[in-house]
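ok here's the first one, seq then struct tokens
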Amino acid sequence: MAATPQAETVAPETKAIGSDDYALSRVPRDKRFGFWSMLLQWLAQSGSISQFTLGATIGVGMTFGDAFLAFTLGAVILEIVIFAIGLAGMREGLATPMLTRWVGFGRNGSALVSFVIAVSLVGWFGVQNTIFGNSVSALVGGPSWMWCVLAGIAITALVIFGFKYMAVFAKIVTPLFFAMVAWSIVSTLKDHSLSELIHSPPPGQTIPLAVAATAIAGGYMTGAIVSPEMTRYNRKGSHVFLQSASSMILSEYIVGLTGVLLGHLVKSNEVSHIVLSTSGAFGVIVVLMSTAKINDWNLYGSSLGVVNFFQVVFGKRIHRGAVTIVLGIAGTVLSAVGIMTHFTEFLSILGVAIPPIGGIIVAEYWVVKKMRKPLDETRESETLPRTSPTWVPMSIAIWIAAFCVGKFYDGGIPALNSLATAFILYSVLGLLGWVKPYGTSTLDDEDDTAAPAAPATTPVGAA
């Protein structure tokens, strides 16, 4: 009976635009999605012309065998990171910003994590929207700013209504994209010897293995760190592994290596026209839809980070749908006026700052296991712990040190260097007892402790 007044306190939230998508609570088990719905969400992240371009770029500077090795290295690195972090998100039903309250950073530290993630993701949303607008303008005409605005509005409208509708969109776009791409690639390669393309020398300047692996693994590392945003809707750990591994196989081996062959064929990384020229207007539409399907996750992850940031810093719970509108408008306007392209260097720096967050999460959750105990105690009840550590200064110091290694050390893969440094430092110092939380914070927002009432008041669909 105690849940009734809590439900009444959160009832007005149902009048807000869109879905809050359990931004500050666990995703209940009965609201999680089935295997095939989640698989299509994962595969949708592989459906991008940019991955063909990446493969072609690597193919111009590497033999097919060396490219295969580079993609293997990148895929293995990404899969390990995604599974280690994504499994934690699935077990707890929490997105990365909320997870870090009890896994490594504490309440105030999670606000800092949320801010970095939110800025990075909304920034990349704007950058991708700019690329989207410029590409459409070049293909069909019209000013690029107009296409930026139209794309931004469409993606924002989709993300407002949350994971359920993003999953529906994936079910439509993913099969269309790969069917169209398969037709285009087969039509292009059928008149050429596959064996000759595989054994042909790279047509351009040689690319070192480390550089290629950096492009492959580093380019998606931020997405790997925020994988709990998706995996919190999974029902089983085996699903997380199978779906993420399927995405890696499709993205790296099928899409990426096909791009390598196309690069050897045309002796250039300009291969997007192959897909577009053989599939007509329908192909252009599908490609644009698939690009939007990838960019919606940038906006979605950013909205979750902002919600947690405001709750911690200002003590206010703001609806995720409302946050999405504000972020979507900001990213769309900045992309339309052409400002976002000037921030790519800054966003690249954040790309080195985010991997250490993943290293700390993995080290605390799977190795040290001291701060996560309150999550273990409340997991079955699907509630959140009533208290969390306030600060974990050593985690911030480890974060800074790992960032410096990733940024200033020239060898290896920067994103992986920073992640590995954070994991090793936190594991060693944590097991030695040097990573200590300071202060205790109470969940002072009623909505946080009313997680069991959320399914009755927040219309998020199951599979």
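and now the second one, same deal
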Amino acid sequence: MKDLIEKINAEFETFKTESESLIEKGVKAAGPRARKSTLELEKLLKEFRKVSVEESKK
């Protein structure tokens, strides 16, 4: 679970960096990269939910 949380934090940092580039610097190529990060975050957060529920049942 610790590894999963580290992956979530890393992906969130990627999203944060890319979205800031898009908004503050106007880097248009950062938009698709930020959207890609949101899709990856969605997958990781679903996995976290699954693991968390399993852990709570123990």
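notes on #2: The longest helix spans residues 30-56. The helical segments are 2-25, 30-56.
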